[in-house]
């Protein structure tokens, strides 16, 4: 969308988009801004009626004499209340150390000493279990081209048999008393292995049972059934608060043996057609391999087949109750390893925050890219907006710049969009001549992750509302779809304040 605007007034525009909470109290007269490293909290006291969103519709945060919300058990800092949170000073301006700001309602985790960008731990629905520690993957795929799988036509196509002929060795189905989102917390409700492993204890070293887990950011695996020593039937979890959309998978496997060839069958996929029919292979990541050789995600598996189940019906399917199976063989190179399998290269909410921190740590990139909190999601996760343009001192008030508005990751399972958006941001903030020309001609407004809640919990398509956000732009209920409401308000304000004929 291109809307010509005055570059001199872009600062007020971004404050419109970043108005995330109603002001419920003013700070005391002697309060000063709390800063962390190079970060600063900026406040604009002199908003006019025509350059700020009507805040009468903003939600009131409950307070009990204390404006802070309990955070995770880690080092935290109290941020001051404001309608905007800057990850750096406004482009082309200098902060005033004694400026008055208002207290923020949120607590942010203090970043490492070498990171000037504050970030917030992911917030989960209360019914979710979250394994301790963060899952980290190195970004180093093979240098050589990975070939597609060429089917021979003789691949085994086992039919699902379920618990009647197998043993459940992993089961994780987050449920609540009501089938809709109620509240969130920093780490869900903790880890309860007796729920995850109902039939077997944690595998002993001599045991040959694989140990599965998906209770981490973006993870998705609902159940694993051991059919034989080397054959496992896997069931994916549908999007939270729905009974549909089973396509994204991301889980870990431990306790493997190198002398066995394993077969995994994911039996409740919902898509009638799939790239697995045309040579796509599942992704695998080995922690041992990454540590020893520096190799990241690789395409793996053989005897790959994708087909419709003939004797199994599942309500998760979009195709008349029928489900589809992805089956493949895999061999592990090292024992005592922990391997991950995924539908596409994962890109988590925390990974996005890490990338935004690297942008802010680079002096040049930070000078042309301003990061703000655009709004909060249903679960209270921060939605970020980036403003990328050439340095303000090079502009004159008379100059007009069109706005290019970009968003990504409205569907959590479509991780390639995040990788593409990361490449766009990396390019637009670079010192390439063509990138500089673009920054001089345009103002880029970018929301790199529209659906952080869905990304965090491992959904494929929906947010915590149980709906596809890409189909909700006609809805006017803010509480149901807060991110879409803020996007519409922002774009409407762009058109309302700076309306001129759209450039051809």
From TrEMBL:
One of its GO terms (biological process) is proteolysis. Its cofactor is Zn(2+). Residues 345-504 form the Peptidase M14 domain. GO terms for molecular function: metallocarboxypeptidase activity; zinc ion binding. Residues 1-75 are annotated as: Disordered. Belongs to the peptidase M14 family. This is Peptidase M14 domain-containing protein. It comes from Notodromas monacha.
